Amino acid sequence: MPQVPSPDALAAEFDCLMARAGVTVPPQRRAATLAAYADLREQIALLHGRYGPEHEPSNVFRAGER
């Protein structure tokens, strides 16, 4: 599992992503939004580390027109 960044590094990453997206987070909501971002980042890391290529399905089903 990837290493968890420090709280300062996580806050800097969050600020950079919000600025890049053009999103302004109100100061009264910053702490809650930053906590949600940290949780989301942990969940993504957990999902990416859980499955390897051997878990991919061998068949692909398509619903096409007849």
Task: Provide structural commentary.
The relative contact order is 0.12. This protein has one domain (7-53). The model has no long low-confidence stretch (mean pLDDT 84). The termini are far apart. The chain has helices at 7-21, 27-50. With 66 residues, the protein is mostly helical. It has two helices and no strands. The protein is elongated and about 55 Å long.
Strand coverage percent: under 5%
Number of strands: 0
Please, how many domains? Answer: 1
Query: Runs with pLDDT <50, length 5+?
Result: none
- Taking the alpha carbons of the first and last residues, their distance comes to 45 Å
Into which percent range does the helicity of residues fall? 55-70%
Instruction: Indicate the overall shape.
Output: elongated
Which value, in Å, is the CA radius of gyration?
Answer: 18 Å
What is the chain-wise order of helices and strands? Answer: HH
User: What is the average of the pLDDT values?
Assistant: 84
Tell me about the biggest sheet?
A: none
Structural class: mainly alpha
H/I helix tally: 2
Keywords:
66 residues; single chain; elongated; 2 helices; mainly alpha
Task: Describe the SSE topology.
Blueprint: H1 7-21, H2 27-50
